[in-house]
Every structure is written in C-alpha cells, then in structure tokens.
ABC transporter permease
Amino acid sequence: MSAAGVFRAEWTKFTSIRSTMVLSPAIVVVSALIGWWFADAAAHEYATATPQERLDFSPILMGMRGMLIVQLLVSALGALVATSEYGSGTMGPSLAAVGRRGRLMAAKAGMTVVTVLPVSVAGVWLMFVTSQSGLAAGGAPYVLPGDPAALVTLLAGPLLLTLVGLFGLALGLLLRGTAAAVNVGTAFLLLPVLASDSTDFVNVLLSTYWPNAAALAAVFGDSDLPGVLSYGLLVGFVAVMQVAAFTGFTRRDA
C-alpha cells in the first residue's frame, strides 16, 4: 500500500471512532470555557491584590493557565490514534495490509499532527480571546493579539500541544491501552504541579527543566531558560519517545 493510501486509511479509521470525533471538538470548547474561568478568577484576585502583586500580574500567564489542563486532553487524543486499534483488534489486519510497520507508524504520526494542530490552534486562540476578554471585563490588565508576548503564545502554544499529541501517540504505541496511556501521560504532564510542595531544589528542577513545564513557561513568557532551550527540551524528549515507540512497534507482535 502506498504512503498516501496508508494515510487515507488512517483518516478513515480516525473519523470512524466516536471517542476521537467527540474529543477533538471537546478540546476546543473546554479551551474556551476554561480560559474565561481562569481569567474571571484572576480578575477577582487582582481586585484585592497588593500593589506589588499588581506589578507582578501577568495577563498571559493568568489567562492561559488552562493549557495545563488542555494538554492532558491533547495527550489522550494522540494516544487514541494508536490504542483505538489495539482495543478493537484491528492493528493486526492494518499491519498485514500495509506491510511495513515504519510506514504505518509514520502515517499515525502524520494523522496525529493533522488532527491535533488545527484543534490546538482553535483551542489556544479561543482560550486567549476568552481569557483576555474576561480579564478586561473584570478590570484587570489584559493584552491584545498584536502584542509581541501574545504572538509568542498564539504561535508557539499550538506547536507545543501538537508535540504533546505526539507524546500521547508514543505512549499509546508503547502501552497499547487507552487507560494506561492516559494515566501515565497525565502523571508525567502534571508532575511539576503535583510536586510543587516538595523541596525547593526538586520544585525548581521540575518547574524549570521538566520538558512540558519548560515549554509551557516559555509560551507564558515566564521561563528562566533561553527560548530555544525551553522548547528544545520538549522537542528532544518527544523525539526520544518516538524512537522508543518505533523500536517497540517494529519488534513486538501486534
């Protein structure tokens, strides 16, 4: 089967699965709602903040915090691209039809990007609009889309979520089960938040150098690392995960 044929087959499988077709628009809706919710809470905090807290107030950081939650849904969507086939028992027939495992995995990776990127663009942009509108409505500082910091968030945010989707795909191929992939992905992505009460050294280490935490901090304009390093940590980690998934996918039985 040609590469184009494999990709078309992956698209057919993706659009025929109810969970993926529900989760994709749900990510966009949740992004919009959670942007307004976090912004409303931040505006109330700003109203009673001290002068120093008002000086430190970051409209993008406070309004876009919902990406911490949205990334979990995106990771689950990426995992479903692989685990839906294991769950339905169609992975074996797919491998037999394609013939080359590397080509099938490449098609799944392409399917993940083609699906997650537009969903992430819509989600991040809607979250930005609702969050900054919520801050403005609550009397708190806000930024407009043309602001340089806003452009970084609007352009880098969807790319970050797309990488998270590829991370989810790798977990799906390695663990072969939706529940396992979602649970492991959630634990990994939220570890910096869950470890916030740990020692200062561990907390700083995780919040600064953990792959998704470093990239998110750069998207929020709150990173202590150079931008290239912040994003590079996530890119490198996802690349390692893809190599591990490819190795396991090509060596294990379906």
